[in-house]
Amino acid sequence: MDLKIVILGPPGSGKGTQTERLCAELGFTKISTGDLLREAVRAGTPLGIKAKGFMDAGKLTPNDLVMELIREKLKNIKGGVILDGFPRNLEQAEMLDKITKVDMAIDLVVNEDKLVKRLTMRRICKDCNSVFHLEFNPPKAAGKCDKCGGELYQRSDDTEKTVRERLRVYKESTLPLTEYYAKKGILKRIEGEGDISEIYRRIVKAINAK
Ligand code: AMP
Questions:
Q1: Is 166 a catalytic residue?
Q2: Is 51 part of any domain?
Q3: Residue 200 DSSP SS3
Q4: Catalytic position from the list 30, 118, 122, 123
């Protein structure tokens, strides 16, 4: 499938979890600006050093940093792509439209009070970025990734205070994008609560209808 899909939804709505599975089972390539930024922070690159303060505060990093990462990645990818966590504001969406045609935007809809619990109990693999949840999607062995055996860690921005700021930023900057894509006639709203596999099936159905 050659579709370019944007996956929207608040932090903790399951974008990363569902994107992982879509890539594994349907052959999409994931581009997650959050993963790319965390890698840059870990590697201590100039871009990572600039981004870290914004990320730790739950703010968006400046558009020029993110666009630099996206342009580089999109250049080298053939076939279907899922953009996870990008675009995050109107300006990024308009810049993306200049680089490539977006075929579909999926909005994962989850009640806000569920999100804080999802995020504060989330754990990520240091090596492959797989996402787990201590209660809803626990790893088979504590602290270890099911897929690659890597060490699991808690993101430094998954604390309650930062999560609340990220949700505020989401409502202010990212939520308007649902309207942007709805106007283009390519928005698909998916109920993001309930069983992870059931949500996955809803997404696949929407993609197949495309
Ligand atoms: P995420 O992994 O998508 O939750 O992103 C984690 C953090 O990385 C965000 O809170 C932002 O600080 C930063 N970030 C990720 N993607 C973007 C983006 N498209 N634009 C600006 N900042 C971003």
A1: yes
A2: no
A3: helix
A4: 122
